[in-house]
Design brief:
The complex is a heterodimer of chains A (457) and B (628). With 457 residues, chain A is of the alpha/beta class. Chain A contains 17 helices and 14 strands. Chain B has 21 helices and 22 strands. Classes of the chains: A alpha/beta (457), B alpha+beta (628). Chain A: It comes from Aneurinibacillus thermoaerophilus.
Chain lengths: 457, 628
């Protein structure tokens, strides 16, 4: 069998000090060799050796200290050439390494693809076929869920808009081709060029935001809010302790923008404005409902803390109303105290928001809270292998390809190539964008032609 | 009471565009063949527009010709006008279209059929099939004639339970008031075939002398020699008839709007699904109400007739309304209508019941082709017809079937679409349906298919040798351009200045020079001619292959991927319901389509990439089990 070369992170993300990025396929060694600087070229090392060195990025700068295992076919997991890059386990570094590998013409592996290859290449016994199928199924379904979560967001809307523009342009081109005598204006070179450039610009914008890898690089911006004395600080400290926080003290800044990172079951949280947590003012009252809504709205996740041992106050109710439309979790803390809070009312005010009761003091309910945080972002089914992160890299790769392809369309227009060639690049761009949002190639184009233009004999 | 009427290798039922190609192919491949038709006067009849070709359709005609079919040759002998369309839009979408002398077209085709060895032509309406143990073994006609055969091809067009609708009037009929075929439709249902109801239509015909052409725009043919067939050597450039262009206007639309309540399309009288790409004028006016006018082409139906086809005015309005509509159109104020337009409903087979060979899954040795399979258009019909005829003959001869894939031919795209996705409306080919469009060009149909046509015995030795010579000449000329360098000599610089291309600094090979957008092969031949004169068709290939090399290479990479997936064969009678890990929707769809390869499976809507992964794993373990 001959397959293209694929890569993926082989270790659970965000946990442990070392991560492994596995590359498999006939170009695996050559691809990693291009970015590896060690004592020896990987192409010349013996099979099944581990090699110390550094990864070098496109600007020739040293990116990472790594150990690289080289295993030549057929005595490997997939029976193909396999290279494993061992690097520091932090989310940021793993992502950078993976992106660099993918930039060498390597494709992001599909869920379960290593195992699938192992099977198809005869490495895995027939009796395990069913297990392999289950694995593919399970992983894919989970990945689909995560992907869906992502694409229901802003990204998919933007891409949807872009694709619709491309589709209309394609339909216009196709109608002049398939109905040459129809009184539809020909697609001019100027129009082709303008539209393609616009699309390219939009993809570039997407890429620049995607490249920041906001969530992955910086974590989910998380705010803890609540009335004084509900236990915000202790919750923060508990989360910090619980999951080995990384505290960054950004030089040249004051204490109040210190951001603290925690990793909750693979979800990187960036606790912002933690200084604010320690303040004792009523935020809503101080800055007004609208303003506080706006401020909290910038957060990816809001943790609203209430006190089990006190009755609900207007300030609590205000806060509940403000966070209700947001990605928020309502936390009732201090279950170690005698109950004074009206849980019925809390439930009613919280609406669809997840509700967790905890006692930081007694260390009760923290695990449940973590689970809720994780499930909120992974649809509940994703465990430590962080698929949001994985599919993100895939998206970036597809967007880069779309960017390149629409660039070729622009070049073709400039070089005076006929419209059938340009149409090829435009269609390819549309397909690549479709892959980002998970839209299979379909009869969309034909439908568009007939709904946009009046045709007939 | 029946009687034994004879035994044949192949029987073709229906002598329309699909039927004649099927019968000619089978007979020419050496099978004793019977061609049955309801009416011997209607062979290769054009019940709708008197034209052949156009984008995608013209490509198919070229493909039929490269496989050794008849349509291209027949239109080359009988056209009244030919034009190359899309000349400015690139080599992949250029396409020939001819206006036919529809009567001459029929007569010429009938003569060819009559004079073909191994081919028996007979009038008769087939009512039933002879079926034993799931195998089709012959046909029975209305008159009781029983014909036995090793394979049967059904190409019944719009005749199955055909119904014509004009305003409030409805009657059972085939196209143009021909006898419909009711019994066969019922019989197919009895045999368990799933049928759908489709609809199509045709515009009125008007008298030539009643048209004021001065109020219309002339649409002449090309003033260069054109031909569909690679074998055609005689051309008629001078002797062409023009078509004429005019438009509908607000008055036309008003009359239609006022009479919509009488339009079968909207009154509910029509139950069949019509094609979106070929709507009636009333449909166009309702759906695109903001369009102030629609084009109307006036096309002569032949040299020896006064009838003129009113393209763009397909309608099933009542007859008197049709006349009123016509008279609003510029140039038609005093028009005499000769035949009214009509809508026709008919039964078609749901094409996912077919293998890619066009053999039915339900009955062995039974093939179907053409409009019966849910397509529309003479060319689409003929393309399927030749494939059904070839495969029926190959089956009779005990040989491997012929399936063209999506990268080889538009015919392959069409058949794959039909059997893999089915169709919810009469299916028309469009170039946009072909994902490998840059490879499936009008110009290179011979390069793609002549070899195949020769292998199955439809291309003569003489033609094949000529084809091989052409191929050699193309390679030789490309090699010459690659190895010949040219310096910045005055005549070269002058040519480059004239075409607006950058002058040379240093010597450059001709190959690279030809790649420049402004430079054509003609320019190259001017400054550095080959020793022997290069024929035009060779020059055309050289130019296209070199100029668009980059794009052609991109598509070829896609094709590589396709071929890998097509090579992974799936067993014909796999029960997908029992494959663990497949989604339920995929199981049902796969069971219905029964794809022959992983590639085909991946094109079924509702089958996801995860399902394909599961199938790959399943297939691997299946093959290992079989190997053990």
């Amino acid at each position: 069998m001959d397959f293209d070369t694929i890569a993926a992170v082989a270790t659970p993300l965000g946990e442990g000090g070392i991560a492994i990025i596995r590359v498999s396929g006939s170009d695996a060694i050559a691809a990693v060799d291009k970015i590896f600087k060690g004592r020896q070229k990987l192409s010349t090392v013996d099979s099944h050796t581990i090699n110390y060195g550094h990864l070098i990025d496109e600007n020739g700068e040293t990116l990472e200290e790594v150990m690289v295992s080289v295993m030549r076919a057929p005595r490997t997991f997939t029976r193909e050439d396999v290279v494993e890059v061992n690097c520091h386990g932090g989310i940021v570094s793993v992502k950078r390494v993976l992106d660099l590998v993918l930039a060498q013409g390597v494709r992001m592996a599909e869920p379960g693809e290593f195992t699938k290859r192992a099977f198809l290449n005869g490495r895995i016994d027939l009796s395990q076929a069913e297990a392999v199928i289950d694995l593919i199924r399970a992983k894919t379904d989970r990945a689909m869920k995560v992907a869906l979560n992502q694409v229901q967001g802003k990204l998919s809307k933007l891409i949807g808009k872009l694709r619709q523009q491309l589709l209309e342009l394609m339909a216009h081109i196709e109608v002049t081709i398939d109905y040459p005598e129809h009184d539809v204006d020909e697609v001019t070179r100027t129009l082709l060029s303008e539209k393609s450039r616009w699309v390219q610009g939009e993809i570039e914008k997407l890429l620049s935001t995607a490249k920041q890898g906001k969530i992955l690089r910086e974590g989910l911006a998380t705010v803890i809010v609540g009335r004084p004395n509900v236990g915000k600080s202790s919750l923060l400290n508990s989360l910090l302790q619980e999951v080995k926080a990384i505290v960054t003290d950004v030089p040249g800044t004051t204490r109040d923008i210190i951001e603290e990172y925690v990793n909750v079951r693979g979800v990187p949280l960036r606790l912002v404005d933690t200084a604010g947590i320690r303040e004792t003012e009523d935020i809503v009252e101080r800055i007004g409902v609208e303003k506080s809504r706006e401020m909290l709205g910038k957060a990816d996740l809001v943790l609203l803390v209430l006190n089990f041992g006190e009755e609900l106050e207007d300030e609590d109710r205000n806060l509940l109303a403000v966070v209700k439309p947001m990605n928020a979790i309502v936390i009732v803390n201090k279950t170690d105290l005698p109950q004074k809070i009206d849980m019925e009312e809390v439930r009613r005010l919280a609406g669809d928001l997840p509700l967790v009761t905890i006692s930081v003091k007694e260390e009760e309910g923290i695990e449940q809270l973590e689970e809720v945080i994780a499930s909120l972002f992974f649809s509940g089914s994703v465990q430590s292998d962080d698929l949001t992160y994985v599919s993100n890299s895939r998206h970036i790769q597809l967007l880069q390809e779309a960017y390149r392809t629409i660039g070729e369309a622009i070049e073709a227009v400039e070089n005076g190539l006929p419209v059938d060639m340009v149409a090829f690049d435009i269609r390819r761009t549309w397909e690549l964008l479709g892959e980002v949002v998970g839209d299979a190639v379909s009869d969309d184009l034909i439908d568009q032609i007939f709904s946009q233009f009046c045709l007939g004999k | 009471m029946g009687y034994q009427a004879g035994t044949f290798d192949v029987i073709v039922v229906g002598a329309g565009h699909a039927g004649v190609e099927a019968a000619l192919a089978a007979a020419r491949m050496g099978c004793s063949t019977l061609l049955l038709t309801i009416n011997l006067d209607m062979i290769a009849y054009m019940p709708c527009n008197p034209s052949i070709g156009g984008p995608a359709k013209g490509h198919v005609v070229r493909e039929i010709d490269a496989l050794g079919g008849e349509m291209g040759k027949n239109i080359d002998k009988t056209y009244i006008q030919m034009r190359m369309l899309n000349t400015g839009k690139g080599p992949a979408v250029r396409a020939l279209r001819a206006q036919a002398d529809k009567f001459l077209y029929q007569h010429t085709m009938k003569q060819t059929v009559e004079n073909t060895e191994n081919l028996t032509l007979r009038q008769g309406m087939v009512e039933r099939l002879i079926v034993e143990d799931g195998v089709c073994k012959g046909v029975i006609t209305k008159t009781g004639a029983e014909y036995a055969a090793k394979a049967v091809v059904l190409t019944t067009g719009t005749y199955l339970r055909g119904k014509i609708i004009i305003g409030e009037l409805q009657y059972e009929s085939g196209p143009n008031n021909m006898q419909p075929s009711i019994g066969l439709s019922d019989h197919l249902r009895e045999l368990g075939f799933e049928l759908v109801r489709f609809k199509t239509g045709t515009p009125p015909r008007v008298h030539n002398s009643s048209i004021d052409y001065s109020k219309t725009e002339i649409q002449p043919g090309d003033d260069v020699s054109r031909a569909f067939s690679y074998e055609t050597t005689e051309f008629r450039v001078e002797d062409q008839l023009p078509c004429w262009l005019t438009y509908t206007n607000e008055r036309t639309h008003e009359i239609i709007n006022n009479n919509l309540y009488r339009a079968p399309m909207f009154s509910g009288a029509i139950e069949g699904t019509g094609p979106r790409y070929c709507p009636s004028i009333e449909d166009k006016i309702v759906r695109f109400s903001d369009k102030p006018r629609h084009q109307i082409f006036l096309e002569p139906e032949g040299r020896n007739t006064e009838e003129v086809y009113v393209q763009g005015l397909s309608t099933s309005m009542p007859e008197e309304v049709q006349l009123e509509i016509l008279k609003t159109i510029s140039g038609l104020e005093n028009v005499k209508m000769m035949r009214p337009g009509y809508a026709i409903e008919y039964d078609a087979i749901v094409p996912s019941q077919l293998w890619p060979t066009l053999e039915t899954k339900r009955l062995k040795n039974l093939y179907t082709a053409g409009q019966l399979n849910g397509t529309s258009g003479y060319e689409e019909a003929a393309g399927q017809g030749i494939m059904a005829g070839i495969n029926a003959a190959l089956k009779v001869q005990g040989k491997e079937p012929l399936i063209l894939d999506r990268s080889q031919a538009y015919i392959g795209v069409m058949i794959d679409d039909l059997v893999t996705k089915g169709t919810s409306e009469p299916y028309r080919l469009l170039t946009s349906r072909a994902e490998y469009r840059l490879l499936l060009r009008h110009d290179n149909a011979d390069m793609r298919l002549t070899e195949i046509g020769y292998k199955i015995g439809l291309i003569s030795e003489e033609r094949y040798q000529r084809f091989l010579k052409k191929k050699e000449a193309i390679e030789a000329e490309k090699e010459r351009l690659r190895t010949t360098k040219i310096g910045p000599q005055p005549e070269v610089q002058q040519m480059l200045r004239e075409v607006g291309s950058k002058e040379l600094d240093n010597a450059i090979d001709l190959y690279s020079l030809l790649k420049r957008p402004e430079v054509t092969y003609k320019h190259i031949a001017q400054i550095a001619p080959a020793e022997m004169e290069i024929p035009a068709d060779v020059a055309e290939q050289v130019e296209i292959q070199i100029k668009y090399e980059g794009y052609i290479r991109k598509q070829l990479q896609d094709v590589d991927r396709l071929k890998k997936m097509e090579k992974k064969r799936l067993p014909e009678n796999l029960d997908y319901m029992n494959i663990q890990g497949l989604a339920m929707e995929a199981r049902q769809k796969l069971n219905k389509v029964k794809p022959l390869s992983i590639g085909q499976a991946s094109r079924i809507s509702g089958v996801t990439p995860a399902d394909i992964s599961v199938l790959l794993v399943y297939l691997e373990s299946y093959n290992r089990k079989v190997a053990n």
